[in-house]
Amino acid sequence: MINIINSHIHLEALSGKSNLDNLNYQNFVFISSKKIDWNNLAKLTHFSLGIHPWYVDIHKYKDLEDLSFEIKKSKPIAVGECGLDLFGNRKKNISKQEFFFDFQINLADENHLPLIVHSVRANQLVLNHLKNSNTRGVIHGFYGSKEEAKQFISLGFLIGIGHMVLKHNFQKLKEVVKSCPMDCILLETDDKDPQEINKVVFMISKIKKLTVEDTVLICNKNAKKLFGI
Predict the structure, then answer these.
(1) For the purposes of burial, counting CB atoms within 10 Å of the CB of 93, is it exposed (0-12), middle (13-18) or buried (19 or more)?
(2) Which of 16, 138, 185, 220 pairs with 229 at a CA distance of 20 to 30 A?
(3) pTM (predicted TM-score)
(4) pLDDT tens, 32-51?
């Protein structure tokens, strides 16, 4: 199979795995979640820098200024992972999440970088934050309606598809994939085994009635265009 660009993977996903010798890390976009990640990620070929909504409470507002400095110094290919998460108790600090998200949207604008967005039960709120920005990017691990996917695409965002599309009870996501233009889809594994990306490719190919090779070629082209790699 053609090498697949994995548009969203965390270093932690490689921890403890013994069957990774055949993976080409040049095709991975490594994503940061918190400040402690930045130095290690900056040693890699393709990486992003940001502060994930899950971790805003362990960061100070000054860390956003440090992020701005680190982006200029380390030259990542994207800003993020950032965004909003309203699942369960995570919504209790939504004001701080929104502040950190807006700051990172502005960093993406200022540095002409794409934005990697985390949106859980928050698609409409995320859309409201993005609509006045000129930035583009990807809604990673997308889960929502076909209409929401179209709204994100209209703002210049791609739709990241990962392991959730493999779940039998996620028919709604399969319908999103079916309706989404192929030039708007990215492949990812997030914090799962990176070799699962082969299963993701097969599922998207099946839904879109494309060959595996065509699916990989198109999604790779999408990633190269978005990230400039």
Answers:
(1) middle
(2) 16
(3) 0.95
(4) 999 999 999 999 999 999 99
Structure tokens at 173: 């996501």
For the beta carbon of residue 17, count every other beta carbon within 10 angstroms: 12
State the residue for tokens 């992003």. 48
CA 51 to chain centre: 13
Tokens of 61: 């507002």
Question: What digits encode the pLDDT tens for the residues 193-221?
Answer: 999 999 999 999 999 999 999 999 999 99
Do 198 and 1 touch, CB atoms closer than 8 A?
yes
Concatenate the DSSP letters of all residues of the chain into one string.
-PPPPEEEE-GGGGTT-S--TT--GGGEEE---SGGGHHHHTTSSSBEE---GGGGGGS-THHHHHHHHHHHHH--SEEEEEEEE-SGGGGGGHHHHHHHHHHHHHHHHHHT--EEEEEES-HHHHHHHHTT----EEETT--S-HHHHHHHHHTTEEEEE-GGGG-TT-HHHHHHHHHS-GGGEEE--BTS-GGGHHHHHHHHHHHHT--HHHHHHHHHHHHHHHHT-
Query: How is the chain split into domains, by residue range?
Result: 6-13+26-227
On whether the CB atoms of residues 160 and 177 are closer than 8 A, the answer is no
Contact 183/222 with Cβ under 8 angstroms?
A: yes
> Among candidates 27, 39, 30, 40, which has minimal Cα distance to 10?
30
Which residues lie closer than 8 Å to 121 by C-beta, 6 or more apart? 85, 86, 87
